[in-house]
Amino acid sequence: MALLPPVAFATESVLAWQRVISSSFVPLVVDDLSDGRFAGTIRGRVLDDVFFARLRVTPHEVHRTRALIDASQRLFYKVTLLLEGTGELVQDTRRALMLPGSVSVYDTARPYDLRFPDPIDAVVVMFPRDLVDPSPDHVRAITATSLGPEEALTRLVAPLLTEISRDFTALEGPASTRVVRTAVELISALLSTAALARTDDHDREHLSLMLRIREYILDNLGDSELNPEGIARAVFISTRHLHALFHQQGTTVSAWIREQRLEAIRRDLADPLHAHRPISEIATSWGYPDASHFSRTFRQQTGVAPSAFRRAALEEARRGGDERSGGDERSGGDQRVSTG
Asked: Where is the signal peptide, in residue numbers (predicted)?
């Protein structure tokens, strides 16, 4: 669990705003539409590679160009919940009208443009692409679309994101990983539902099958005997078909299972509420009954031993608690986080 300093920044300089936004999110170009009366404020918190931010900005445009993408080290999805004002999102030759209460998704791996002709108040969440269930191809079907309050899951996602953005202390302390996990899972469910509704019959069948497969794997991560043959039987497809589906996503069944197990173990090791549990018990609960095999695998994937990872993560959590008890979020240009 990476607990980084909070973002708290206000400026009347569009160039300073561009620097902060590019450092906090991904490299971007910002153009002022406010006739020289630009003003912007951002507050935010990053945890477990997920960045939650609340922005209040005068009219402006944002551009993500191919050159900026080529210079980026990591790629993310961004979800914007507009609270006040209106906007337009352009990506993949589509245009979406952004209205208060709507949720829009865009992919930092491809160029996009945002135009806000009015002052806005918005919540923006940025997260690694592999944290949600739909594949990049399926997310492409819903980029630059507006998921409004008429969507049932938007009505669940919007209040949670709004409440988090009111008080980022919700992203600190023992329950922080659970809050982040809940928010990302709801966003993933919203994107999956939207993708299913907006794809053709063939793609819809393919996405539905992948979601069933991933759900089965996640429900059975603790089973050390989980394997491709058993997964294929459970979802009524051949093992060859299962391997082909994961190959299309650029991974393998075994690699995806390993990644999900290690991510779950990292969450538990970093969670103060699990600090009393032996590492071997946590590993076994997620499908690694062989302690030596788990330790080797964990070190290969993270570069550190499980015990060292836990010590560092719990110390970060303790320091975060000390900072919270010692005062408010710090402000100024030096208090930016860099997630992209």
From this structure: none
Report yes or no: 78 and 25 within 8 Å, Cβ to Cβ: yes
Same domain, 41 and 173: yes
Strand order through the sheet with 60-64: 29-32, 60-64, 112-116, 87-91, 94-98
Q: For 142-155, write each residue's pLDDT tens digit.
A: 899 999 998 889 99
For residue 334, being part of any structural domain is answered with: no
Structure tokens at 50: 């997920």
Give one DSSP letter per residue of 72-131, joined into a string.
-S--EEEEEEEEES-EEEEETTEEEEE-TT-EEEEETTS-EEEEESS-EEEEEEEEEGGG
Range of the domain at 175: 7-199
Q: Which residues pair with 91 in a beta bridge?
A: 94
> Could you report the per-residue pLDDT of 176-204, keeping only the tens digit for each?
778 888 999 999 999 988 888 877 766 77
- Residue bearing tokens 């000390």: 322
CATH number at residue 222: 1.10.10.60
In a domain, 1, yes or no: no
Q: What is the DSSP string of 179-198?
A: HHHHHHHHHHHHHHHHHHHH
> What residues contact 19, with CB distance under 8 A and at least 6 apart?
333
186: nearest Cα among 158, 149, 146, 210: 158
Instruction: Evaluate whether 131 touches 189 at the Cβ level (below 8 Å).
Output: no
* Residue carrying structure tokens 């918005």: 122
* β 103-107/76-84 pair status: antiparallel
Same domain, yes or no: 188 and 150: yes
Would 60 be classed as within a structural domain? yes
